[in-house]
Structures are given as structure tokens and as C-alpha cells.
Design brief:
globular, alpha/beta, six-stranded parallel sheet, five-stranded mixed sheet
Length: 364
């Protein structure tokens, strides 16, 4: 058996209170101030990960910094703290460690961290891409959208996940728009896509304009702020939000009963898994990035699998095949910590058709 570990951190100061309820009445600023001085620590023991071929166990290791702290504090300080978390994983007996949330974004996306550890490192981004695309495909199917006719928009298309999504989708769709802050970087991605597939994609830094024309949105930015609001989407739009913190405002689902917002990268873990940590998911389910670490441990592939800013289609296809081999699969459709039923999606589809007709007739 090859044990694993996964580094987690609070996305916001409020998440810190999940593990330490006594801090619920403290201000966010006070909590963040304290977290700077808390060393990384073992959060919980993960047991019961059993596939048809092998089994594994592992640990969650906490790195006490919020997403905002990781993006705003000196990079050297943040990297040192993440490496210390990796050392906790080493001492626990892990042979491979996964980088959760913003720990996979800081600096060179895991390369420096891997160089400073004696165990393998992966970001989980390969399986995150595979599951995000599969989720988008399935959502399009139930909403009656054809992928090859839909206008697909990728937010954060110059990041490693976004660029990989774009490369794969360029083989499946006709209309693809890439969105990011740097148009120069977008042009580079667009050129690579044209050379490999012949598809001429649109690029823009105007997020709002791209969203208004989108049938399917895949949101994968590293922004700590929400980017998608209720007024940004057309009736019947599908949004697959892979980003953590989320790119989609919760108000979208509250104000728009005619759009489908799903969480990307949520999977069922084989076996009777016990995480020992409440991260808001039903029992037996996890983020795809967590699952990638487990899959590699189950397969015995103790190697630096997904690190750095470049993802390859081969990596994504490989981890997807290994996931299927070991019994990992999408955990249905979820939106803001709750499962969506097919009946609810049918209602969204019905509402979108009515709204689109009303707009066509000029009623609203």
C-alpha cells in the first residue's frame, strides 16, 4: 500500500471555523493574523479508499493561510509554509502529496515544492480538467444542447487548467471563446490551438461581453473574487465552476431559475472512505484534485505527475483512464454544496425556454 497526503487550507477566514468552532465570533482580520503564526499540522486520517485493484490511506495536512493571504503575502513566505506542510506529510508516511486549492497556484505551480520534498507531488489539475469537461458534456446533454453547436466560453483560459480545457474542447466544438486578463497570453493559446486542430478561436479580456453570448461557460480562474453575476448570463446558459474560491456568485442561483450552475470536479471515491474532515461534500465524495492523489497512490505511480503550468492532453487522458480503472466517477450534478435532481434541471430547462421566448417577443 502506498499512502498519500493532501494539503488543504481555508479558502476564507470563515472556513477556519469549521475546524475550530471556538473562533466563530472572531473577526476575519484577527483570524488571518493568528493563522500566520500557526505551523502546518495533520488535520485528519483518511481511511477506506478501496478500489477493485488496491487500497490506500492518507492524511489531510492543513496549511493555515487563506486564499487571499496566499495571493497577497510574499511568495517566498507562502512557499516555505507549503513546503513545511509537505514535510508534515513526509513524516506521516505519505509517499505522494497533493496540492489543494491555492497551494497549487503559488509560485511555479508545485515545481519548487517538489524540489524541496522527498516524496512525489501532484496538483490534481489533470483529473480536475477531465472531470470538468465530462461534467460540462453531461450537463449539455440533459439541457438539450449540442456541444458542436454551442458557444463555449472558458474563463481563465491562460491558466494551466483553462488552457488544457481549451486544447481538448477545440477538438469537439466549433465556437470557442477564450477569456483572460492578458490578450497577449490568450493569443499564444489561440495560436497553439489553431496549429494543433485548425480551429480559429476568439479571444477577449472583456469577461462580461463573452458571458452574455455564452451557452456553456467553464470557469477556472484563480481570482479570489466572484466574476459571474445574475445579469451576465443568457437564458439556458450552463456554467461549470471549477474555481475555488468560486467564480460564480451564489446570487446567480437565487435570482436566475433559467440557468444551470454546476460545480466542476466533484467525484465519488471507491470504498467506504472516511475523511475525518467536513469540507461540505456528502460522504464518499471529494474534489477531483484530491482524487488524483488517491488514484496515483492506488496505482502505485509515485511520481511528480501534474506540476508546473503546462498540462498535456496525454496526462489528462491517462489519469482519466486510471480513474475509471479504480472506480472513481462523477458524483452527479451539484450546485453550491447540494445535489441537483434531474427534475430540478428539467425545470431550469423549461424556464430557460420560456425566458428566451419572452425575450424574443420583447416581453422582458
Amino acid at each position: 500500500m502506498q499512502p498519500f497526503a493532501f494539503i488543504v487550507h481555508p479558502l476564507t477566514a470563515r472556513d477556519f471555523c469549521r475546524k475550530f468552532p471556538f473562533a466563530q465570533n472572531w473577526s476575519d482580520g484577527f483570524i488571518e493574523g493568528i493563522m500566520k503564526y500557526i505551523p502546518p499540522f495533520k488535520v485528519s486520517h483518511i481511511t477506506g479508499v478501496v478500489s477493485p485493484h488496491s487500497r490506500t490511506e492518507g492524511w489531510f495536512v492543513g496549511c493555515p493561510l487563506t486564499s487571499r493571504q496566499m495571493t497577497e503575502m510574499p511568495e517566498e513566505y507562502v512557499l516555505k509554509k507549503i513546503i513545511k506542510a509537505g514535510k508534515v506529510a513526509e513524516k506521516s508516511g505519505a509517499k505522494i502529496v497533493g496540492l489543494g486549492a491555492f497551494t497549487s497556484v503559488v509560485g511555479d505551480a508545485g515545481i519548487t515544492i517538489a524540489k524541496n520534498l522527498n516524496i512525489a507531488v501532484t496538483s490534481g489539475n489533470s483529473y480536475t480538467v477531465a472531470t470538468a469537461l465530462e461534467g460540462a458534456r453531461q450537463a449539455a446533454k440533459v439541457m438539450g444542447l449540442s456541444m458542436d453547436r454551442a458557444n463555449v466560453v472558458i474563463l481563465g483560459a491562460t491558466g494551466s487548467i483553462g488552457a488544457a480545457c481549451a486544447q481538448i474542447l477545440s477538438r469537439e466544438v466549433r465556437y470557442l471563446t477564450l477569456v483572460a486578463r492578458s490578450e497577449a497570453k490568450l493569443e499564444k493559446v489561440a495560436t497553439q490551438i489553431f496549429r494543433s486542430t485548425g480551429l480559429a478561436v476568439k479571444v477577449t479580456a472583456n469577461t462580461k461581453s463573452a458571458l452574455r453570448a455564452a451557452d456553456i461557460v467553464i470557469a477556472v480562474t484563480s481570482s479570489v473574487d466572484t466574476l459571474i453575476e445574475p445579469e451576465d448570463l443568457k437564458p439556458g446558459a450552463i456554467v461549470c465552476d471549477v474555481a475555488r474560491p468560486r467564480n460564480v456568485s451564489r446570487s446567480v442561483t437565487e435570482a436566475r431559475d433559467d440557468v444551470l450552475v454546476i460545480e466542476g470536479g466533484v467525484v465519488e471515491v471507491p470504498g467506504d472512505v472516511k475523511f475525518g474532515l467536513n469540507f461540505g461534500f456528502p460522504q464518499g465524495t471529494a474534489y477531483a484534485c484530491m482524487a488524483e492523489t488517491m488514484i496515483l497512490a492506488l496505482e502505485g505511480r509515485i511520481e511528480n505527475f501534474t506540476i508546473g503550468r503546462d498540462l498535456t492532453v496525454k496526462q489528462i487522458e491517462t489519469i482519466d483512464e486510471l480513474a475509471k480503472k479504480h472506480g472513481f466517477k462523477l458524483a452527479g450534478f451539484r450546485s453550491f454544496e447540494r445535489a441537483l435532481t434531474l427534475a430540478e434541471i428539467a425545470t431550469i430547462k423549461k424556464n430557460s425556454a420560456a425566458k428566451a421566448e419572452a425575450l424574443k417577443e420583447g416581453i422582458c
